[in-house]
């Protein structure tokens, strides 16, 4: 990297941070704003052209992006929505790739069907980043956001496996069964490698006792999953996603609180720079893509028109697919509601059986836990059902992004009309991002799609905190409770702990409203003021130089740990 590229990288980071700060305030999704900024920058005369190796994006940039998203997806929510996620990320991607392939083969007669399907695979997976950014800002229902997140994680794997098979078909004769077999192997092997990478690295990181060391390991987890999978021609993308889901699910059990705080902060930073950097690059490279088409003696205007036709086909296919999918999900909601009484009756009978023999009680307890989980799943389906309004938002949230950009440029040089195909893919990505991305907020407002019920959330939170507080009381009331040295706790200390346990429960259930003046709020306010005064004294001590750096560093670390426990608004 020369000095010019270094300056360009610094400018890109500053642009990403600036846009990420300003865009939400003016009601624009950050990815959309960055594409516009990139397009504008590409036409500046003093800005150099930048040819980025697409394999660098697919092998170095994409794995961390997917991993950082996967670790923040709740595995239970993913499982509950697997039907919708699987349909959108596998079935719809395959249908879209084939349909676009046949359309391109018809519009460009000298383009082979295999090459056309390869481009169909390139443009078939939506990128959920822009949709999620818009949805969270406007308060989309959580279930809709989860479906979009899950689709964005899995559809890349489907598209890239299809792309690899289609590219292989352009170089020789490949049978349908070869494609199906390769697809099945890629999925199965990717799942296994992802599970191994996830569980092994979680086990290793649980043995480490320093956040810096566990964070260092976390940075290589995406590549530990991606590289071996790609080496055996499995789906590296799927392996990364599975490893991320495993890590996120296991972190609460095996990582310390400081490890989880560090991981969230570091990976949010990585995701901010990489994901948004690709959107900036998408707009920035438009001049290069158009130039390549002209040099290949293809008509730019006709190519853009073909890209618009492909975009229209993809939008129509998604709408037609989401309609029956929404009907299917609504049917599942009705079925879940209908079996509520039956599951409760089964649970009552299993509870009665737990008073029988030990063997029968153990089996009944295991079955009862399965029934309770099914009841929880059904409650989720009935309270967070996906209606027709949500289905409309889901159908319109088909913006393309990272994979479309990189995969299009990874097409082999031997593919006829390669530059034209890349411009078609760019047209699809930019038109869907700017067109659908800009109109999605309008659609959400017009349909009056409501988010979560604040009162229901409050009741659920109160119930959960009640369970936590009750468990704490049981621990303190245990007559066998002892210190680590075997001695009983002092009664005064136990009483203080009971008061603290009750105070924790009250503080967690109280809304963080500055207008409130409850005891919990007053305690939090005083705690914050004491921390501020401590920080002020520490700063004065640094300026005076009367204390060693060892003492100052130790106290600063303790204060930072305390501040990290505050609500983000209070900490700020």
TrEMBL record:
The keyword Ion transport applies. Residues 15-445 form the Cation/H+ exchanger transmembrane domain. It is a multi-pass membrane protein. Keywords: Cell membrane, Ion transport, Membrane, Sodium, Sodium transport, Transmembrane, Transmembrane helix, Transport. The chain crosses the membrane at residues 6-23, 28-48, 54-73, 85-107, 183-204, 211-229, 235-252, 272-291, 303-329, 421-444. It comes from the Bacteria. It is found in: Cell membrane. InterPro entries: Cation/H_exchanger_CPA1, Cation/H_exchanger_TM. PANTHER family: SODIUM/HYDROGEN EXCHANGER, SODIUM_HYDROGEN EXCHANGER 7. This is Cation:proton antiporter. It comes from Dactylosporangium cerinum. The lineage of its organism: Bacteria, Bacillati, Actinomycetota, Actinomycetes, Micromonosporales.
């Amino acid at each position: 990297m020369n000095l010019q590229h270094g300056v360009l990288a610094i400018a890109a980071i500053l642009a990403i941070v600036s846009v990420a700060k300003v865009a939400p305030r003016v009601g624009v999704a950050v990815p959309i704003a960055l594409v516009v900024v990139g397009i504008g920058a590409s036409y500046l005369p003093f800005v150099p052209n930048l040819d980025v190796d697409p394999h660098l994006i697919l092998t170095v940039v994409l794995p961390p992006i997917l991993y950082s998203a996967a670790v923040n997806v709740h595995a239970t929510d993913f499982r509950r929505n697997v039907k919708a996620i699987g349909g959108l990320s596998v079935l719809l991607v395959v249908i879209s790739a084939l349909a676009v392939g046949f359309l391109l083969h018809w519009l460009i007669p000298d383009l082979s069907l295999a090459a056309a399907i390869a481009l169909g695979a390139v443009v078939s997976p939506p990128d959920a980043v822009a949709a999620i950014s818009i949805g969270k800002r406007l308060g989309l229902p959580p279930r809709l956001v989860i479906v979009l997140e899950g689709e964005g994680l899995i559809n890349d794997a489907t598209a890239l496996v299809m792309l690899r098979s289609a590219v292989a078909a352009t170089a020789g004769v490949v049978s349908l069964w070869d494609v199906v077999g390769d697809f099945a192997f890629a999925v199965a092997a990717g799942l296994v490698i992802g599970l191994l990478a996830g569980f092994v690295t979680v086990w290793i990181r649980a043995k480490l006792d320093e956040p810096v060391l566990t964070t260092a390991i976390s940075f290589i987890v995406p590549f530990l999953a991606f590289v071996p999978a790609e080496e055996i021609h499995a789906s590296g993308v799927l392996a990364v996603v599975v490893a991320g889901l495993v890590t996120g699910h296991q972190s609460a059990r095996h990582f310390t609180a400081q490890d989880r705080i560090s991981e969230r902060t570091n990976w949010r930073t990585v995701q901010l720079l990489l994901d948004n950097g690709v959107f900036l690059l998408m707009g920035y490279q438009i001049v290069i893509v158009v130039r390549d088409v002209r040099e290949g003696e293809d008509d730019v205007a006709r190519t853009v028109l073909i890209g618009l036709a492909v975009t229209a086909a993809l939008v129509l296919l998604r709408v037609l697919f989401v309609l029956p999918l929404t009907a299917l999900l609504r049917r599942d909601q009705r079925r879940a509601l209908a079996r509520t009484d039956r599951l409760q009756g089964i649970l009552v009978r299993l509870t009665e059986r737990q008073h029988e023999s030990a063997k029968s009680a153990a089996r009944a307890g295991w079955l009862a836990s399965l029934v309770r989980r099914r009841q929880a799943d059904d409650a989720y389906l009935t309270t967070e059902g996906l209606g027709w309004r949500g289905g409309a938002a889901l159908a319109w949230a088909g913006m393309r992004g990272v994979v479309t950009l990189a995969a299009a440029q990874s097409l082999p040089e031997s593919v006829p009309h390669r530059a034209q195909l890349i411009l078609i893919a760019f047209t699809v990505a930019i038109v869907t991002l700017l067109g659908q991305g800009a109109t999605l907020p309008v659609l959400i407002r017009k349909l009056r799609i409501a988010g979560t019920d604040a009162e229901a959330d409050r009741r659920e939170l109160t119930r959960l905190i009640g369970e936590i507080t009750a468990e704490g009381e049981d621990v303190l009331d245990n007559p066998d409770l002892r210190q680590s040295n075997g001695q009983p706790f002092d009664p005064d200390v136990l009483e203080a702990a009971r008061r603290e346990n009750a105070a924790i429960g009250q503080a967690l259930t109280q809304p963080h409203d500055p207008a409130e003046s409850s005891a919990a709020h007053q305690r939090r306010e005083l705690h914050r003021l004491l921390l501020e005064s401590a920080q002020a004294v520490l700063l004065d001590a640094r300026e005076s130089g009367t204390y060693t750096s060892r003492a100052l560093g130790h106290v600063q670390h303790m204060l930072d740990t305390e501040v990290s426990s505050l609500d983000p608004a209070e900490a700020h």
